[in-house]
Design brief:
Blueprint (H helix, E strand, L loop, with lengths): L6 H19 L1 H8 L3 H7 L8 H8 L4 E4 L5 E9 L2 E8 L2 E9 L3
Antiparallel strand pairs: 1-2, 2-3, 3-4
Keywords: Membrane, Signal, Transmembrane, Transmembrane helix
Protein name: Outer membrane protein assembly factor BamE
InterPro entries: BamE-like
């Protein structure tokens, strides 16, 4: 008696394994996508280098986090995204120098 998998079972089984592997690989991306406000993300995309902190707060609202190093002109403002991930904007001397849509925990 020969126990060989037939192509009609092997192909769907292979596709299911590929689908499960893909979802597992991108699980963090999918979780962020499902828990992110599209409206807030669109506003965040409008942040550009050189804007002042008051202009950024006008676009995004009051930040939930503020992080700064002593004796440094750089600081971060953060808005919560999901769990320990935040939107963050880095400032130097009151002007935007970078923005991060996946900043770690404050």
């Amino acid at each position: 008696m020969q126990t060989r998998l037939k192509p009609r079972y092997l192909i769907p089984a292979t596709l299911v394994v590929i689908l499960i592997s893909t979802v597992w690989h991108f699980r963090d991306e999918l979780t962020l996508y499902w828990h992110t406000s599209a409206e807030f993300h669109a506003r965040f995309e409008k942040i550009e280098r050189g804007q002042t902190s008051s202009e950024v707060e006008e676009i995004l609202g009051k930040p939930a986090h503020h992080f700064a190093f002593e004796d440094s002109p750089e600081y971060y403002l953060g808005w919560p995204r999901y769990q320990h991930t935040t939107y963050a904007v880095k400032f130097r001397d009151g002007h935007v120098i970078a923005s991060y849509d996946r900043f770690g925990s404050f």
